[in-house]
Amino acid sequence: MPFRALAVLGLFGVVLIAAGPADAQAWGEIVGRVTQADGADAGAAIPGATVLVLRRGEATNYGTAARGDGRYDLRIPEGVYTLRFSGIGFQARTAEANVRRGQVLALDVALALSTEEFEEVTAEGERAAQAEAGVFTLQPEVIRAIPDPIGNDAIRSVKVLPGVTSSNELSSAYSVRGGGYSENQFFLDGFEVYRPFRTRQGEQEGLGLINADLASGLTLYAGGFPARYGGKLASVLDVTYARPEGPPGGGIYASGLDAGAVIRTGLLDDRVGLAVATRRATAGRLFASQELKGVYEPEFRDVQGLMDFRISDGHSLRLVGLLARHRFEFEPQQRRTTFGIFPDQIRTVAFQFVGQETDGYDVRFLGARLSNRLGPVLAEHEGSYFDTEEVERFDVSGGITLYRVRDPNQSPDDPLNLFRQGAARQRDVADNEISVRTITGGGRYRLLAGPHALEAGWQARSLRFTDRLYEFTEIAGQDTLGLPRFVRTGSLDDQEEVSTGQQALWLEDAFEIFRPGLLVVTAGVRADHFDLTDEWTLSPRASARWQMNQWTTLSAAAGLYYQAPTYRELRGEPVVDTSRTLPELNRDLRSQSATLGVVGIDHLFQGTRFALRGEAWYKQLSDLISYEVEGTRVLYSGENDSEGYAYGMDLQFRGEFVPGLESWLNYGLLVTRERFFAPENPTPAEQIAFERRGGGSYIPRPTDRRHNFALFVQDHIPGDDTWTLHLRALFGTGTPFTPPSPDNVLDGATIFSPGPRNALRYPEYFRFDMGATKSASLGTVGGRDMRLGLTAEVLNVFDQSNTIAYTFIDSGQGFYEGVPTRLTPRTVNVRLRLDF
Q1: What is the SS3 assignment for 204?
Q2: What are the φ/ψ torsions at residue 701 (nearest 5 degrees)?
Q3: Nearby residues of 610 by Cβ (< 8 Å), 6 or more positions away
Q4: How many C-beta atoms lie closer than 10 Å to residue 630's C-beta?
Q5: What one-character-per-residue DSSP string does 493-516 give?
């Protein structure tokens, strides 16, 4: 195992030992019985009733469930706690418990029948989701606690969950169980939203579109997601926004990298809920810490709002809106990178730049959902509008000089210690725009009928893409007389506008077998139609969860998933040549498909607050549209040219050093490969390209990361729970990339063609971030508790140099040098937050 992976595991062990004093404090026990308070079965036990510990009014993952006779027992450190008791079809209620060391506290609770049955079923389903195959959850407090360069971002927080890998802290892009960056769906309170389409390195992305300050919970479906979700192969991320209630409350925060505020309130006796949140990030100081120096002027900001109207009993209307404006302006100046193998292969590359880059994107979103309870049926109808406009403009010229370091023990910045080996000049120009407008309408209908929870739904979507691309690259060469000149190695001038639509229908049933909660099976089917390619797909899906006992749960899921081709896949990417033209839209392109199977086990160690979860999974991939990754930009072939597979396992050891603060360690094993179809009647150039792509043999896909670790730790300082410590560590072995082959020389300029596909790998990615928060209560104002928190964060504690890409230059000696593009070094950030 690599040294850094051992270091992460060792650190986790140190944290466990350090937390020992907190875990070894005196314990007590709560025992009791949960029964029915009213109705014909008053006094009857409620098997499977949930008992959860609340922390500051919010549910934690620490608790237990009632047995078949309604009895429960909960071992817990001494202290005063608020417990929440709930069950499907019953009104939840809370109770205070004063636990003393070595004593047993008896606490019986009776629950009344619920008049809001659907809401109770939804809440219980969310709490049970953690035990479903391929389903993982995060709470808002955890999202806010994760040390990250861009804080309070629900999308970036997913990187600490099992099955998720990422190699760029500046980007919200991630891969789930071998899937590509474009194989993930994102839902903001049930409405689909989209990440930027054309970002290259991640710096331009800024804030993710989902604000954790408005969220009540985050659910990641890493496989086996329900029939109401469709259109992607790898995962679904759904963040639910909380309904605002009660007197005005909220929070405000600021740091050296970002700032934000949120306000929530209930109006008209809580018949109307209103919440507004705004964020602003100016991470210029973070970007400027990279090796590439210049004038960074980024500004990312958004405002989101939520209004919830209870029209009458059983009838409500929810409105969700978002406006985002992200701008990234940069004037690059210089960069110096030293790399190589000690002692005789040390190289230094000096870059000098002239020019400017301006990128940006604007997002406008509005969603509305009308919910009506009509007898035993809950009907929801919704509509949404999503519009994004992206601009990418740059004109940058650069001079590159490659040096060999004479004496590696001396400074590589000393001119006398450098021996010049090669030089090049290059100019990159782009003036690109893309706009995407999506209008969606749909309905969802749910019926509770005995042990069955039936659901049916429909969706219709209109899409419009407008894309204008103008870009070219020039490198220094020479004319027939040997005089210097710029040679244009690639140019692109094209535009396209596409309007199309999608339709979907689905049907699903979740039903219980034997006693309630013992075995829950969910089976469904989804049909999709894509107008542009005139293709119908049928996607059957099923999952099951078996509660073996109160400590162990088994789960499984299987399904056939389709991903309709996106606009970028339909266009493909031009072949690098002296003149580049985008191909016509490939209307014969078929949807990519994945046949997935996953099995899992979740075991709570009796008498402890720790659990082990394990899952094994396999995907068979068909009709793949191959792609390569440059930074965070995905380049598609535009053809169904390959097939593949992916398999692996994910292990998670999680627990709570103190109630309400969950920690975990994840390990993931992943293998994903593909093979290309042989071309019919190939030309010599096509045959060479086929051989470079494996010649029909299986080769690694761009997301083939064999080993991945994620560590997240929360704990209080023993004896002082006003101090909270947060640690996050990410480690992953290198992903593959395609090296260039300098086999083409034009007018004295070396033009790199693709070499053997995915033949080399990037170095491993390792990042360790930590933070400490001091919180204090400021009393109660207007019925709300006011708390002040001061957080100090050290990002990339070990100052690890992570590589996201390589710049290849001609060494002048018949081979090329790959110069690494590195991510952010160690950064210190201080954050102040007031919650009320």
Answers
A1: coil
A2: -85, 165
A3: 604, 653, 654, 655, 656
A4: 13
A5: EEEEEEEEEEEEEEEEEEEEESST
Q: How far apart are CA 59 and CA 659, in angstroms?
A: 11
Domain boundaries, the chain: 136-409+437-479+495-835
The H-or-E segment that residue 595 falls in is strand 592-604
CA 538 to chain centre: 27
Could you tell me which of 592, 575, 705, 707 has the C-alpha nearest to residue 642?
592
Residue 577 has pLDDT above 60, yes or no: no
Joined tokens for residue 752: 């790199």
Strand partners, 772: 725, 792
Residue 18 — very low, low, confident or very high, per pLDDT cuts 50/70/90? very low
Would you state the structure tokens that stand for residue 302, as one six-digit string?
């958004």
User: Whats the size of the chain, residue-wise?
Assistant: 836
Residue partners of 352: CB distance under 8 A and separation at least 6? 333, 334, 398, 399
- Residues forming beta bridges with residue 346, ordered by sequence position: 340
For 519-562, write each residue's pLDDT tens digit. 889 999 999 999 999 999 999 999 999 988 878 899 999 999 99
Containing 637, the helix (H) or strand (E) segment is strand 633-658
Sign of the dihedral through C-alpha 197, 199, 202, 207: negative
Fold of 136-409+437-479+495-835: Maltoporin; Chain A (2.40.170)
Each as own residue / partner, the long-range contacts of residues 511-517 (CB below 8 Å, 24 or more positions apart, any chain) are: 511/451, 511/452, 511/453, 512/451, 513/451, 515/47, 515/68, 516/47, 516/48, 516/88, 516/451, 517/47, 517/48, 517/547
Which residues are CB-neighbours of 476 under 8 A, at least 6 positions away? 424, 425, 426, 484, 485, 486, 487, 749
Of 352, 350, 353, nearest to 403 by C-alpha is 350
Whose CA is closest to 537, among 595, 456, 479, 481?
595
The phi and psi torsions of 107 (rounded to 5 degrees) equal -145, 100
CA–CA gap between residue 703 and residue 180 (Å, rounded): 7
- 765: β partners: 732
Q: Considering the entire predicted model, what is its pTM? A: 0.84
Contact 728, 159 (CB under 8 A): no
Tokens of 257: 């990298």
- Amino acid type, 162: P
Residue indicated by tokens 């005005």: 248
Pairing state between β 707-717 and 699-700? unpaired
